[in-house]
Amino acid sequence: MAHVRQFTPLDQLLVEAQRALDTVFGRPAAHRPSPAGSTPDVELDAAERRHAAGLMRINHVGEVCAQGLYFGQAAVAREAETRGHLLEAAQEETDHLAWCADRLDELGSRPSLFNPLWYAGSYALGALAGLRGDGWNLGFVVETERQVEAHLDEHLETLPEADLRSREILKVMKADEARHADYAEHAGARALPQPIPALMAAASKFMKAVAYRL
Fold first, then answer.
1. The CATH number of the domain where 71 resides is what?
2. Is the bond leading into 193 cis (omega within 30 degrees of zero)?
C-alpha cells in the first residue's frame, strides 16, 4: 500500500507561496492550446490596439483574481470533493491566464502593475468564503463566474471588430466560466445574500477601471 504524505502547515504555506509567485510573477503554461490557434492577427490601428490591450489586461487580471480566489477557497475547503473541484477549475483558469498573457504580448502590451495586490485580495476573500463552509465556498464560485460571464459579454461587444484572435479566446473563456458556475450550483452552492453580490460587483468595477490602464 502506497504511503500518502501528509502536508505539514509549513508544507502548505510553501505550496501556497509557490502558487502565488507562479501566478503573479511567473508565466504559467496552458494545458490546452490557445483558442486563437491559426486565426489571423489582423493589423489594428493604434487606438484599436490600445483598447484591445486594455480589455485583455482586464481579463488577465480577472484570471489572476480567479487563481487567488480558488486557491484561497481550496486551502480551507472542508470536503475533498469541493477542494478537487476548486483546483480543477483553477487549472482551467491557468489556461485562461496563459492565453491572455500571450495575447497581451501580441498586442505589444503588459499585465497590470497591481497583480500582486489583486491576487492577495482575492486569496483573502476566497479563504474567508471557505471558512464559512463549502456551501458558501461554492456560492462564491457561482457569483464570481456569473459576473465574469457578464463582463466577457461586454468585451465581446466592444472589442475592435478586426480583433479576431482576442475574440476567439474570450468565447472559450466564457464557456468555461459558465461550466464552472453550473457545476458549483449542482454541487450545492448557497445563494449569496445582498449586499455581498453588490459589493463584489463594485470591487470588480473598480478593478476593471484601474486594470484597463495600469
1. 1.20.1260.10
2. no
Domain assignment present for residue 25? The answer is: no
Question: 97: domain range?
Answer: 44-213
Q: pTM of the full predicted structure? A: 0.91
**Considering its fold, how many domains does the chain have in total?**
1
pLDDT digits (tens, 9 = 90+) for 155-214: 999 999 999 999 999 999 999 999 989 988 988 888 888 898 898 899 899 999 999 999
